[in-house]
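Please produce the structure of this protein holding zinc ion.
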Amino acid sequence: MDCIFCKILKGDIPCNKVFEDDSFIAILDAFPGNEGHVLIIPKSHYENIFDIDEQTLKNAYGLAQKVAFALKSSLGAEDINILQNNGELAGQTVNHFHIHVLPRYKDDKVIIKSEPVEIEKNKIEQIRQNIEKNINI
Ligand code: 5GP
Ligand code: ZN
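Below is the modeled complex.
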């Protein structure tokens, strides 16, 4: 399969690894948004959040928390963004599930922003009901 992260996992493409266990690697992003931008990558190939199983997802976020603490203590990151893109419209460029752990420093150049859209009051209720109906626990 033509997947950059699978190639990294196989050792065909080099990476800067900060963590590895049976299920995950955590590596430095090759085009980092900030110093210490880490990607959490499961060893199995899941496309995105619609594809990954719940237990692996939970473990991935558990690892993201550990990395977040490490970025605070090792690099002095003041705050952290956890980001995770699913699908092209959402900005996913590598179709192998991954979590971005992005450390934030005072006066850094990172911009994560969306303009608010206006939605009519009765439309909001329609939206709320639709989502509520479709949540399958
Ligand atoms: P996405 O846009 O899919 O959420 O994030 C993909 C991330 O993978 C990007 O931040 C990009 O910089 C990173 N990336 C792409 N190719 C490579 C690579 O070969 N090695 C590493 N370490 N990161 C990569
Ligand atoms: Zn893959």
